[in-house]
Amino acid sequence: MNNLKETTVKNILIIEDNENMLRMMSDLLGRAGYSILTATDGVQGLKKFKTHTPDLVITDIIMPDKEGLEVIMELNKQQPRPKVIAVSGGGILEPQTYLSLAKKLGADNTLAKPFRPAELLSLVKQLLA
Description:
Elements: E1 11-15, H1 19-31, E2 35-39, H2 42-52, E3 56-60, H3 68-76, E4 83-88, H4 95-104, E5 109-112, H5 117-128
Parallel strand pairs: 1-2, 1-3, 3-4, 4-5
């Protein structure tokens, strides 16, 4: 009898307008064995979601064109609905205000910037387990 589990690479879409943050998250999760797609705004992110249907979407809240809160509301309408992690460093309001709203709108988890890479990796592993 074969006890080997079938392993499927999980796909993650990262939507982040800050290039350094996008690169850090992409490199970290790619090294952890995930397949990574990236987008620099919500409009581009939703287009990529529709063509690739990732298992998890990590979205910044404050972005040009379409903000992360709008992205989360759009993702709630999708079948199958992906897991969502919202990240924010704040804007006019404190990060926790945006993240609390993201959670109410359907984000599975949230993370305030700046965060440690290990925190992100732990959340991703939890949601995709």
